Design the sequence.
C-alpha cells in the first residue's frame, strides 16, 4: 500500500498563517474524501507560542469557513524536516530559516504561494480579523493549486519555478 503523503505547513509563530493553511488543506481533503491519503500538520520556526492555542482571529476565521480543527502550536524539529515530503513555508524568511537549520530538507521546502504564481502570505498577526480572512482565502487557493499539482494537474498551472 502506498504510504501517506506528508505535508507540513510552516510559518513563524504557528498560531496564524500555518494553522490557517492546515485548516484549509484539511477541509479540502475532507471535501474530496482524501483524508486517509495524507498526513498533515503545521509548525513554526519560532518557539514563542509553543503550547498555545491558535490566534483567536485565526480560530474565528476557520470556524466561519467550517475548517476549524484543534491545534497546539509547536516548533519545527529536525524529525519534521526528515519526515515530511512537502514543507510549505508562508514567507521567504520562514523558508530560509527552515533551510538554515535543516539543510537536509532542501528540495522539499517551498513557498506555499509558489503554487499560486509566487509571493508570500502576509502575516496577519499585527492586522485585524479581515486580514486573517484574506490570508485564509489566499492559502486556501494555494492549497487547491498544490493539491491539483499533486494530482498531476499541475502542468497547466504554475509548478513552482525556483528550487528552494
Ligand atoms: P504566524 O504569525 O507566523 O502566522 O503564526 C505570527 C505569530 C506570532 C508572532 C509573529 C507572527 N510573534 O512575533 O510572536
Sequence:
Amino acid at each position: 500500500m502506498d504510504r501517506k503523503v506528508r505535508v507540513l505547513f510552516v510559518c513563524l509563530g504557528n498560531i496564524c498563517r500555518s494553522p490557517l493553511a492546515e485548516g484549509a488543506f484539511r477541509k479540502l481533503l475532507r471535501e474530496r474524501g482524501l483524508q486517509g491519503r495524507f498526513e498533515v500538520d503545521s509548525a513554526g520556526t519560532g518557539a514563542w507560542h509553543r503550547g498555545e492555542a491558535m490566534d483567536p482571529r485565526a480560530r474565528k476565521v476557520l470556524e466561519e469557513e467550517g475548517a476549524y480543527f484543534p491545534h497546539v502550536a509547536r516548533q519545527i524539529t529536525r524529525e519534521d524536516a526528515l519526515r515530511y515530503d512537502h514543507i510549505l513555508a508562508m514567507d521567504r524568511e520562514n523558508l530560509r530559516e527552515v533551510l538554515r537549520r535543516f539543510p537536509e530538507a532542501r528540495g522539499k521546502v517551498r513557498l506555499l504561494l509558489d503554487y499560486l504564481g509566487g509571493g508570500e502570505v502576509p502575516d496577519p498577526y499585527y492586522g485585524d480579523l479581515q486580514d486573517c480572512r484574506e490570508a485564509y482565502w489566499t492559502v486556501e487557493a494555494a492549497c487547491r493549486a498544490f493539491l491539483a499539482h499533486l494530482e498531476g494537474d499541475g502542468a497547466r498551472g504554475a509548478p513552482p519555478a525556483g528550487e528552494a
Q: What stands out?
A: The longest strand covers residues 5-11.
